[in-house]
Every structure is written in structure tokens, then in C-alpha cells.
Amino acid sequence: MDLQNIQDQLNTEFSKEETRIIFWFDDKGEYEDEVSELQLDNAKLHILDGTNWFYSKWLLNESDTDSKYLVYAPFPKPSDAENPLADMCHYSAAYYTDRVSQMSQELGIDNRFKEHLSQYSNFWKNKERIKRFKELGIDHFNVETIDIGLIAVVTEVKTPNFEEITRKLLLNENEVYMKVLEDQGLLGKFWELCEKYFGYQSENPNMDDLAACMLLTYASVALKDTLPTVLKSYVLKKKNDVVVFVRNLMDNVLYQDAYDVLSEKVDKTLRVVSKIREDLKKDADKSKDQSVQLLDIANCDAFRELDSILIDWALDQLNDEILDAQIDGMNLAKIAEQRIAKSCHFGTVYKYEYQAIKYAYQMMKAISVLEVTNDIKTMVTDYQNQTYLIDSYYRWFYSAYDCIDDSEKFFRVRERIENMYSFTYLQKVTPKWNQELTDNLIADTGLKRQEDFYRNYLKPYEGKNRVIVIISDAFRYECAKELMEHLEMDEKCTPKLGCMISSLPSITPVGMASLLPHEEMKVDEKLNVTVDGQTCGDLISRDKILKLQNENNVALAFDDLINANQSRLREILQGKNIVYIYHNQIDARGDKPASENEVFRACKEGIEEIHRLVHRLTMYLSAPKFFITADHGFLYKRDKLQEYDKVSYDKEICTCKNKRFLITKQRMADPGMRSRAMSYLKNSYVTTPIGADIFKVAGGGQNYVHGGSSMQEMLIPVIELTTNAKFVAYDYVDVILTSVNRKVTNLITYFDFIQTEKVTDTMKARSLVAYFTRENGEKISFDVPIVANSRDDAPEKRTFHEKFTLKSREYKYGDKYYLVLADANNEKNILQRYEFMIDIAFVDDFGF
What pLDDT is stored for residue 843 in this prediction? Predict the structure, then answer.
């Protein structure tokens, strides 16, 4: 260092009132010949020669206590035991001229770490690196924090945290960083820290091997003995710390994709899942019970392809109709739900496969226990309460199945689902329904007639407050059930679901006419429909009929309203009384051969669109009352009907024909058909197949049909909905800890929680994360997600049994630790905080 710079630095230090003595131990005596040339502004120079210790002590402490002194020694500073001036050194200032000492003094690093810092002399030659080291903000220096800080700088990590450094090197291209670590003499330190933090040791350490060890250690906790023996050497001793580290990678949205790449690389390199498959096959060949291995696999989410094992197993059960198959008490639906859950890392990857499995199982199970009564009113009640779910399961299965990229392995299950739905369920229920359903639909079913809709539901509102009627073409009853779930969860909505019996034939012209106000509806033999002498086949004519009742009534198209802004909506609906809104999503797609296989997607979109319109009209207008209904339902079967499934008929007596109905001049005597006389159909009969099959009629479109007399076509939903545009007070459900023990004695521990109230329109679901922390807030476990969305009345069905894994570290008896429940969307929002004592005898690999 330039002598002038030294002089300037010393004079600056001596200018401070509190500085009286500065000790300068010049290790190599580099400035021994020049020190006397220093021109100190207000201090004297005193030189130690190794023999004048006591004279120096007398001089500085007794003889001249008023003067400031630079005490220069052309040799290294001795230890305190060998330094007669040690006490003075401790309360005086120190001065260094070598780069490392200068730098450590500037950073506030104790001089006792000088030798350690000197190992990395190249590091300190770079001003940018020194700057970045300062910016780390290390508040406590020791050998470990210094090393971690140095490694953080060269790996371009902005926080002095070894787990963050490891994360970056594991999930990114690391060759350049590893080379820099080696050049700076830090590579060995990195591997030493890997051993300390994770228990990783190797004769030839490298990042690929570390990644394999980390992921297999995490996997081994769930897989246990299912982990192939040849891979057990990869399992590290500090399992808990590895589990917490890996889980935090998996759950962090910033790192999830990179983790997936790493996981696939490890799996392909070591053939992890392939080896597990091979072991399972060997056990199967030996007729061994595989339930333990399957449970281990069901609890592990380290590798994506583990799900393929579970999916293949589940499909085997469905293909063989083994509906009582379970893993640890979980049926196929529960297993699927567990794998789709937020807590399972690859849940979204196989979402549709597991949904298809879940709904296939639920449909097959429901059909297997289905009993069909001979009492038609009981059939209606059963359908409203539970049988409708079979149609929903079938719809939901195909909705998932159609989203699976490679659906070939689902071929047999799909075939079985199709056969069970078409030939077991529909052919079991529909003929019995038709046998009991006479011409007198109301007396038979106990339901209100669709023809009386206006009189029963809307007449009381004439000339009064605005009422919105949404008529969705082909919106069948089971779709309305799903819409009800959406509405019940909306705090502004109070819905009630009822049911009507449709007119026959169950087609749009007849159904739409039935819903209009009228005294008399007529349908001629060619299906020309009039109400009170007025045609009603389009929006303009329906609007005219509504206005005959009241000039403030109106008929509108759904598409004209759904995207209109608030001012436009007010303009259209200002002063209106009864508003009919016609929605056509399902029938528009289903009635076209090219798009009929999209009908289930149209159902989902239709449900969402109706809810969206209700929400918009509630928010933007005074619309406190809604009725949501349909003109008819539909039947849909995925497979094309064979020729033998089509019913032949006498064309001579037909005046109108359709795949699901005929208009005939006389009753048909064929046992495969049923003819009914309708009051609005003079001198003719509506003839329908007694089953779910179709008539031999030319033209495309066989999958989606309606017009017939099945429950799916004839049971018309009516949702009566009251809304409140004002602010509705609502809250979120609470989740509390129910385990009474507040002492943790194992690094792996389980706790029970309960959702204190069910989800309702005024009590919303809540997503939480649970984790353990030290008193200073540092997390010592990974986040455990809890989704509190149960709508069950029974408290025992709203419970959670969750597993927590604590880091391996020293836990001091008497220190405070906390189990925290926080809002998953904002972890700063602490919902519950429980104080715990952690008393663990051994922290290395304890609890596994």
C-alpha cells in the first residue's frame, strides 16, 4: 500500500476523539524502513522491537497519557498469552495494511478470522465480489457464515443461505458455477457444507449424485421397503433436513417446473420407477400381497411415473369390476382424490386420468347397487335425490376422458362404462319408467306440468318487481344440480331446485311454447306449435306473446346480455317486468352431428355462463328474482348405435318422425313402443321407444338425442333463485388444532385438525398452510397444505390428519416453538399459532 495512503488513513483515525492508541502489527515488516517518514498530525510514533514491552507499557500508561500514539511492530501480533500489551490492544484501535485485513476491518469481521479469509486471496482481489459480499448483509461472522457468503457471491445467490445456494445449483446449469467455486478454492467447502446440512458424502462428489441422493432420500420416507434395495445406498442420513428441503422445492411455484425436470432426470438415469415396477411384477408372479407396496407408492410423489403404476393398477380393478379394491381403506375414488390433491406434487399432471378413474368407479358402483322401484313417484324422488348422479358421473367421466392425451390405456374402461351406462343403467331404468308412465303425466309423477310453468311460477309477479327467467335449451336436471352447487356457494344467492314434467315430444318447439304464458297450446300432426293462436318458434314471436300479457315483458337472447356493460344492461332492462332470456349452449352443439360429442363440454360451459349472467345482473341491476329452467333434457351415449338398436315402425301411419319420437295417427301396439295422447295434440299420438334406443330415421346425429320419454329428457329443472345485490356478510371457515398434546418428541409427528363449520353461502372455504417455526419466525418444517372446503354436516367428516417433518437440528429444551396455521394466499395472515415444546433426544435421522 502507498505510504501516503497509510498516512491519510492513520490521520483520519487519529482525528477521532475516542482514538488514542493505534496498534500496527506489520507481519512481514514491510514498512519498517519507512514508518519513521510518516507525518502524523496529532500523534507520536512508538516502535516495538520485541524487547521493550514493559517500557512501552510504562510510556503509554504512566509517562505520557495525554498524547496519541501509533505503536508500530515489524512482526506478527503475538497471542494474548505472549503479549504484555494484550489488554491495551483490546481497547485500542488496530491497523492493517494487507488487503485481507483491510477488507475484514472494513466489513467488521473479527481479526481472528484473518487466516481463514487469507485462504481466498483471489476472491478479495475483485472489487465487485467484495461489493456483493457486503450486500449480503451478514450480521454474524464465523467460519461457516463467511464460507456460505463467499459461495453465495460466486454462485450469484443474493442471500447468504446454504439451502438457497444448493437449490440454485441443483435446479440450474451448474458447470460454470462449480468451475468458479473450484477456482476460488471454495469447492471443497461447498461439499463440506453439503455433508453438514444434508449428510451427503462421496469419494467423487458431484451435483448429479447429490440430486439423486436428495430425491431418493425424500422418496424413501414414503416408499420405505418398496424402495429397491439397489437404490438404498443413495439415502442420506439427515432425512428430515432433506425432506424439508425437497418439499420446499416442490411446493414453491418458482421452482416446481425445474424440480420436475430434475426428478425426471434422476428417474431416467437410475430407472427408479422401472425398478419398482420390476419388483412389483416379481411379487405378483409369486402371488404376494402388494397392498403394502401400493400404499407406499400412493404416499410418494417424488417421481412423476409413480402415478402410472397407480393408474395402471386402478384400471385393472375397473376392467375386472373389482369395486371393493382398496389401499389402506381408500377406495378407487379416494385414491384418485388423494393423488389430485394440492399436497400431491404431480396431481395436476395426471388430473384427468384420476378424474376419469374416480367417476368411472363412482358410476359403476352406483349402477351395481341401483334398485329400480315400480312406483313412478318413487322413481322421480330417487332420481332427484341420487339416481341423477349416474348421469353426472357418466358426463364427468367423458369430460375427463376427452382431455387425456394418451387415452389408449383407458380403452377397456371406456368400453365398460359405455356398456354399463347404455345397456345396464338406461335399459334398466327407462323401460320401467315408460311402463308406468301413462297419458296422465301429472297424476303419474306428482310433478307440475311444464305447460303450467308461467301460471305456477310467474303469474304472481305480473306487473310487479322484475323477474328474470333464463331458459337454457336442453339444460337437463343433472346439470341443474351442478349449477345449484355453484349458486349455493355464492353468498349473494339463495337457490331452491324443483322439477317439472316436460311436454311430449320433448323437443324445443313444444318445450319453449309450454313455458310461455297461454290459455291454450296446440300442436298439429306436423309439429306446428301455437299458443293462443300465435306462432312462437322464434325470439320475435315469443317477445310478442310475452308483451300481450304485459307491455313491459320482454324476450331476449343470452348473447345480447352476457357481454353488455352496465349502462347497456340498464338500458335494455329498465322498467321491464318479466324477462325471458334464451340460452342455447348445449342444444346448439349437441344437435349438430359434427359437434354432438362436444355436448358434455357444452354442459360445463353452459353452467358457468348461466352463473356468470346471474352474477352480472345481480351486481349491475336490481334483479332479486330468477327462475332457471329448460325446454327439454337429452340423452347422450358416446358410441354409435348399431342397426339392431334402431326400432322399425310403420311409416304409413306416421305424420312426423324423429329419432326419439313419432307422431302417429293411432296408438302403436308394438311392445317396443309406447303411444300417448296429449291434450294439445288432436287426433294424433306421441309414440316413443320404450327404451333408450332410437327409431330408424335417416340423417346424422345418433349420440345426442331428445324428444323421447326418458327421465333424462322429461324431468325439467326449475331453479327458483333469490339474490341480494347488497353486501352480504360472510366469513371463512376456521381450522383449529384438536390434538391436545403440545410436546413434540419425534422429528416426524402427526396432528389432527378440524374444520369448525361446514361451507355454506355465507361461510366460504379456506386454503391454509401449516408449519413449525422457531420463536424468531424461522421455519423448521415444510408447508403442509390444508384445504378446508367440506360441506358435510357431520364434524367427524371435516377432520384432517396431517404429517409434519422437522429439520434435524438441536432443539433446546425450554425454548419456544410454534405450530402456525396461515392463509395459503397470504402467509403474513397468521390464523392460528400454537406454542409447542420440542424435546428430541437425538436429531440425526431420528423418527424414520
Answer: 52
